Every structure is written in structure tokens, then in C-alpha cells.
Amino acid sequence: MLQGSLDNFTLDEVLNLLAGTMKTGHLRISGDRGTGSLWVDEGLLVQAEASNVVAGGDWEDVMFELLRFESGNFSFVADDLAPSPSESTDIEPLVERGRELLVEWNSIEAVIPSPEHILSPVAKLPIEQVMLTSGEWETIIAIGEGRSVSQTYTTLNVGELKGCRRIKSVVERGLVSIDEPASAHAVSFEADTALAEEAVVDAPPAESDVAAFVSENASNVVPLPVTTTESYIPEIPDVPEAPATNPVVDAIPPTPPPAPPSPDEIRRFSESVDDVSTLSATPPMPPPPPASLLGGDSEAASVNADGSAAADDEASLLMKYLQSDS
């Protein structure tokens, strides 16, 4: 049995070897794009299939798909006959056709970046009248109101190469628009979420880790005063809430205003008061001092007609008054 890696031998090199040596048997390939099988009879291809090629696909599609394998392994079992052989054909022309299809695929990828991109018919045609082939019309119907590239060529059931060839045609003619995959925003959000989770702040170290670090770096550690919250936050005593109402005060009735005086009280008050008309707003002059204060001789003292001392004796009278008090 012949076997090896596609990293050391390309698929077309292996096929050319089988064709040149006119081998008969089964070549099996497994790699990054799935699996594939080729049966040869005396160096001629009699049957071919691949996992990504629809049933009924021609050998060109199978060869194109197998040549897209970038990594994988192969094995050849001699004399393993094909289960459903067809008319034999030369391998070399098929390999050349497969290479041509790879070149065409590069131009398709320039218009259709991935099978997950979304297709939708344009709201307004670029020109007044449009002529469509039957394949283009079927493609637009398959797209409907909007589908991905892979959903479209799966609905058409023509395979990835032929389906993308039709999609490329309607996109380039301006009949269909192609947009980013619907999951692109979700993937971006998931990536941002993952970055945010990785950026979570680390938890504080445990006391044992701190003690171990201090003991290992005792010469470089300067002790700092430890301040606790109890040293600067005083305790606040509980203050009882004042009652909303005082029942003792509420039980005391309010003091009524004084009643006005009765007519009888007013009359008695008027009779007890003398005639107020004789009262003067100016108070009366005080009476003259007694004669004893003036030295006991009223005639010797010189006074004025209103009882006041004369001007020339006023000082002496004042002195005598003050002496008598003492």
C-alpha cells in the first residue's frame, strides 16, 4: 500500500504517478476539506467522488474540490476495484482542468469573500430593462428576500463552484447585493466580551501570601502604621425619636380670651374716679422745704413768692439742707 502526506506530495503529482505507472486500485484522500476517493484502472480514471460535491457532480467538480485540499494524507490500495465504474478517461486532462478552475475560483473569491456572506436582491435595478438567463433567474429566486451564499447554492443543488459562478454573475450585474455575514456582529461582541473577562481585576492577595512576601523581602520592607476604621470613626449613640404628639398637653383645653367689662363694672369704675377734667397734664410744683430745714427761722430765710430760695441765698440754703440730712 502506498501512502503519504499532501505536505510532501501534491495530489496532481500522485495522480500523474499512478497514470504513468498504469496502476489499478483505490486512492483515498482525507484532509482539511473532508474526504475524497479516486479509482483508476490501468492508469485511467473510472470513478471519482468527494464529500463537498453534490450527487451527480461531474469529474471536473471532484478534481477541483480535491485540488483545494491544503493539508491531509493519502493512501493507495492496489487492485481495489471501483464499486460503480464509468467510462474511463485520462487523468492528466482532468488535472489541467482542475487547475483552470482554481484560477477561476480566485476571481470568484474576489466578489464572494465567504459562503456566510448574505445575498439580497437590490431594491432598484441599475437599468430600465434587464435580460436574464435561466440560471440567473433561478439564482435570484433562490436568494428570495435574503439568504447566505451557502444557502443559495445548496437550494440550487448545483454545488459550490457552479452556484458561486451564478451568484458572481448577478452580483456583478448589480442585481444582487452582498453584505457581511449576520454572525459578524455576534462574533465581534463575543470577542469583546472575552477580552473584558480577561481584563477582570485580580483579587487582593491572601494574608498568608503577604506574610510570605514580607518574610522573603524583609530587608526591603518598611513597616507602616496601621490605621483602623475604629480609630477615627466615633460611635453615634442612638437618639430616641420624639413622639409625634403629647397626650398630656393635648388634654389641656385652650385658655379662652378675657370677657369684656359689664356696664355695671364700667359705672362703678367711673364713680370711683374724681372729675378728671381738673387734672392737668403738667405736674404741680413741689412744696417749699419746711422751715426747720431752713435753719428754723422762716422769716430769716429769703425766699421768693413761689416758695423757692432767693438767688443770693440759694447756695447757703443748699449747704444747710445737706448738713441737716447728714
Could you explain the architecture of this structure?
The chain has 326 residues and is of the alpha+beta class. Among the domains are: 2-105, no CATH class; 112-183, Arc Repressor Mutant, subunit A. The chain is 38% helix and 13% strand. The chain is built from eleven helices and eight strands. It has helices at residues 11-20, 59-67, 91-111, 134-143, 149-156, 160-172, 183-198, 207-216, 247-251, 263-271, 314-325; strands at residues 2-5, 25-31, 34-41, 44-50, 72-78, 118-121, 147-148, 176-179. The strands form two sheets. A five-stranded antiparallel sheet has the order 1-5-2-3-4, with helices on one face. A three-stranded antiparallel sheet has the order 7-6-8. Strand 3 (34-41) and strand 4 form a beta hairpin. Residues 296-301 have low confidence and may be disordered.
- Helical content band: 25-40%
Measured distance between first and last alpha carbons? 159 Å
Strands in their spatial order, largest beta sheet: 1-5-2-3-4
Order of helices and strands: EHEEEHEHEHEHHEHHHHH
Rounded average pLDDT: 77
Main sheet: strands, sense, barrel? 5 strands, antiparallel
The unreliable regions are 296-301
Instruction: Give the number of DSSP strands.
Output: 8
Number of contiguous helices: 11
The oligomeric status of these chains comes to single chain
What portion of residues belong to β-strands?
A: 5-15%
- Rg from C-alpha positions? 62 Å
From the spread of the alpha carbons, the general shape counts as elongated
Output the structural class: alpha+beta
